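Request: Could I get any protein with tokenized structure?
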Amino acid sequence: MAAGEFDLIATYFTHRYPTRGDVDTGVGDDGAVLQVPANSELVVVTDTLVEGVHFDHYTPARAIGHKAVAVNLSDLAAMGAEPAWISLALTLPTFDDEWLTGFANGLREICDYYQCQLIGGDTTRGPLTITVTAHGFVPTGKALRRSGAKPGDWIYVSGALGDAGLALAGMQQRQKITPDYQRRLNERLFFPAPRVALGQSLRGIASSAIDVSDGLLADLRHILTASQVGARIDVDELPLSLALTESLSEADAFRYALTSGEDFELLFTVPEAQRGVFDTVIAHAAQKPVCIGRVTNDAGAIQLLYAGEPWSFPADAAYGFDHFQQPTAESET
């Protein structure tokens, strides 16, 4: 059992993590010394998970370790970047060997899968808070941004929406869900899969991109604001899981898909001139992105259609999570 801060670091975060040849100095010194590849730009992202806001005390420690990294890799994916390194700032209320073992295992497993090396960070005592900073590379001038969408571009999403939100609703008994579906949905909520490979394949093809963390409509608005365009969304084209459609009415399924967050799919736009190239790139993908609409000239406006006709959506539910409008929320969903 670790006796202090440095023992804790050595026991849980120094060994058994992947190592990379571009790390000259990692964990154990005052700072990391790293090599950035030639003709590449460095992409840096940071996310914080706070107990009582992003997860509760029932959330498995392994899931928290996984998700702390996954949410950052999802941001890198939205920029078209290749993950390389992470740093971890961990604030703990007390020493708990069982929790730390589970957390470190979840962190290590996803780092192993994506070949990210833990290069440093900090440990402190206080309310349970996890902050991860992830670093990745993108060829010079090839980073995806939110600001490139143009009228006429096609809008795509990489996979099913609303599952994480429904998982939380089921756990909080706000929705009745079968045990089998609840287990499947919990996997989406607790162990999201960042679309890293897809993000890299979109370089030079997508005109804009973002990951769906706060809800489709909320995150789409970021693209529309940055690009000064509008959007038309065909709600009947939204990709929905069987767990969602068999647990909810059609209208509620659309509501979850449009407004609940933490699915960490990619939302992106593709110009008409690039659609052939894009179709070739995704031809053999196990999970193909779905076209859900088109970019319009009406700056800032989102038009929702069902079977080509205007679809009514409650105004008070048309936005995703906001930390300062919903400060007591128990999840970012």
